[in-house]
User: Fold this.
Amino acid sequence: MTARQNGRRDMRGKSLPMAFFLLSLSVVPAISGKLVYEWYVNVRFAYSIAYPGEIFMPQEEAANGGGRKFLSRDGKAVASVYGYDAPENHTLTTVYNETLSRIKKEDPGWKVTHKSLKDNIFVVRGTNDVMSFRKKVVYKPAERQFVSFEAIYPASKSAYYDPVVSTMADTLKMLQGPKIGR
Assistant:
């Protein structure tokens, strides 16, 4: 009997027991400083990220199962995390360069304060004196997928949001698990 015949396989090749394990992580808090971080686990693209529930409220997961947004309780900050399949001929360097180009085009006032590209990850941070942003993208070459975390928040509240958003970005992890029938 194959894994598909006995019903233990979902449509993306991850085992259902693994999916239940991953979902169970979402109720295990992580503590950073005085904030308690909760976990969002995405089964479709196999990643997780921690967020402080007392600051960011998770919104509904995207209809395609790729990710979700988190809105700050004061309504002034938004963070999002999502996975997507890599378009043909797109590499991490391609997405990195497109990101930097888009930042310049959207608002000439945006100033990139940090950028790094190494291995399968890039990070870009910046400000336009009104808002600050952070973007982290991870490339999963074996799956030809990207996972992106983005946050934008008032520059005047950077002392408050910078460590929170930094912790969220640092907790973005690609998950590995047993695969059935691949």
Notes: The chain has one domain: 16-174. Helices lie at 16-25, 92-106, 158-171. The first helix runs from residue 16 to 25.
